[in-house]
Every structure is written in C-alpha cells, then in structure tokens.
C-alpha cells in the first residue's frame, strides 16, 4: 500500500517535491479501506477487498465519503465538478477498477488493449498508471 516515488509526470508537475514528507496512509484493521494523503491528489479514498462483493466495497466507500464530507467539504466547481490536483481526476473523481487475471489476453497485449478500447476501459498494471502487469493480473477500469 505504500506510495511509489513520484513518476516522471508527477515530477514534471512539481507534485512530489520533498518526497516523502507530508504524505501518509491510514487504513482500517482489515486493510479494506485506505486513505492516502498527498500522493497524486490531496486525498485518495480506496475501498477494496478480495472476492466479488462489489456492493460491500461500494457501500464502505460511500459511507466514508459522506462522513468525511460532513467534516471537510470537498472543493467543487459548477462546470468542472470536484476539483483535484491531477486534471484527469476532475469531475466525479471516481475510478472503479478490478484486478483480474487474464493469462491468455496477457500473452497478447494488443488484443487486450483492443477489447478494452471497444468497451471504453483502461488497462493498467497492478501498481497503477505506467506500470506493467504482474503474473497476468491487470487493473481494469
């Protein structure tokens, strides 16, 4: 769950100056809910767990977002939506993904990208943007 040192894009935006000072990760006992402070954005809320109970993952996230919003209002712009440091996260700021093992498609990355494009999905490595898959497991969002 630890942050990776800022990638070249974050470095170019001067987003990871003084790394790792001023950053932190908080999590529940089961490590199914995490709060990353000052990684790519000021706050990143992560709800995750093994298995297929997406409803539980979503309910946990919504409960946390509502609790935080009661104490600290999120910045919002009428046209842009919720504001973040990273422009690709503007708007709803939500990215839902699954980690899934697709060994046959992993052997043919071009086919995997073709299928993902057809359904407007993004394919990433399990460690985030600009990373490779590990053992045929991809982050699909």
Write the layout of secondary structure elements.
Elements: H1 8-12, E1 24-27, E2 33-37, E3 43-47, H2 54-71, E4 76-77, E5 81-82, E6 98-101, H3 103-106, H4 109-118, E7 123-124, E8 137-140
Antiparallel strand pairs: 1-2, 2-3, 4-5, 6-8, 7-8
Domain Phosphagen kinase C-terminal: 1-141
GO biological process, one term: phosphocreatine biosynthetic process
Organism: Gymnetron veronicae
Task: Describe this entry's structure for a reader.
Its EC number is 2.7.3.3. InterPro entries: ATP-guanido_PTrfase (IPR000749), ATP-guanido_PTrfase_AS (IPR022415), ATP-guanido_PTrfase_cat (IPR022414), Gln_synth/guanido_kin_cat_dom (IPR014746). It holds the Pfam family ATP-gua_Ptrans. The protein is α+β, with helices and mostly antiparallel strands. It starts with 7 loop residues before the first helix and ends with a strand. The chain has two domains: 94 residues, Glutamine synthetase/guanido kinase, catalytic domain (Creatine Kinase, Chain A, domain 2); 45 residues, no CATH class. Helix content is 26%, strand content 20%. A hairpin with a 3-residue loop joins β4 and β5. The model has no long low-confidence stretch (mean pLDDT 86).
Numbering strands along the chain, what is their spatial order in the largest sheet?
1-2-3
- Structural class based on helices, strands and sheet pairing: alpha+beta
Write down the CATH class of the largest domain. Answer: Alpha Beta
Overall geometric form: globular
Task: Tell me the radius of gyration.
Answer: 16 Å
Strand tally is 8
C-alpha termini separation? 19 Å
Summarize the main sheet.
Answer: 3 strands, antiparallel
What is the H/E string?
HEEEHEEEHHEE
> From the 3D coordinates, which CATH architecture of the largest domain would you assign?
2-Layer Sandwich
| Assembly category | single chain
The parts where pLDDT drops under 50 for at least 5 residues are: none
